């Protein structure tokens, strides 16, 4: 008797997961994203307005979030 979950498990064994960003480049990408977020947040802090929020504030927040996760993964702390 074969279960669907067992079939999926056996099919996945032949094709291992390959991440889109390799382990060797996570530190560089994380550092770059954190640096970009620092620059964007600084510019946004100097010119605060509702017009600059979608242009500078939201990209700075996203860059910081993804950069922090990549840096955490790059140094060996897995989330």
From TrEMBL:
Keyword Membrane belongs to the record: yes
Bilayer-crossing regions: 27-46, 53-78
Q: What is this protein called?
A: Dolichyl-diphosphooligosaccharide-protein glycosyltransferase subunit OST5
Record note on quaternary structure:
Component of the oligosaccharyltransferase (OST) complex.
Does the entry feature the keyword Transmembrane, yes or no? yes
Keywords noted in UniProt:
Membrane, Transmembrane, Transmembrane helix
Q: Hey, what's the signal peptide range on this chain?
A: none
Which organism is this entry from? Answer: Clohesyomyces aquaticus
The membrane topology of this protein is: Multi-pass membrane protein
Question: Where found in the cell?
Answer: Membrane
What InterPro entries does the record tag this protein with?
TMEM258/Ost5
Biological role: Subunit of the oligosaccharyl transferase (OST) complex that catalyzes the initial transfer of a defined glycan (Glc(3)Man(9)GlcNAc(2) in eukaryotes) from the lipid carrier dolichol-pyrophosphate to an asparagine residue within an Asn-X-Ser/Thr consensus motif in nascent polypeptide chains, the first step in protein N-glycosylation. N-glycosylation occurs cotranslationally and the complex associates with the Sec61 complex at the channel-forming translocon complex that mediates protein translocation across the endoplasmic reticulum (ER). All subunits are required for a maximal enzyme activity.
Query: Mainly resides where?
Result: membrane
Q: Which family does it belong to?
A: Belongs to the OST5 family.
């Amino acid at each position: 008797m074969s279960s669907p979950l067992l079939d999926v498990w056996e099919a996945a064994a032949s094709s291992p997961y390959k991440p889109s960003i390799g382990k060797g480049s996570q530190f560089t990408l994380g550092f770059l994203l954190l640096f970009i977020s620092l620059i964007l947040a600084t510019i946004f802090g100097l010119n605060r307005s509702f017009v600059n929020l979608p242009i500078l504030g939201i990209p700075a927040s996203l860059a910081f979030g993804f950069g922090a996760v990549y840096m955490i993964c790059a140094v060996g702390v897995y989330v």
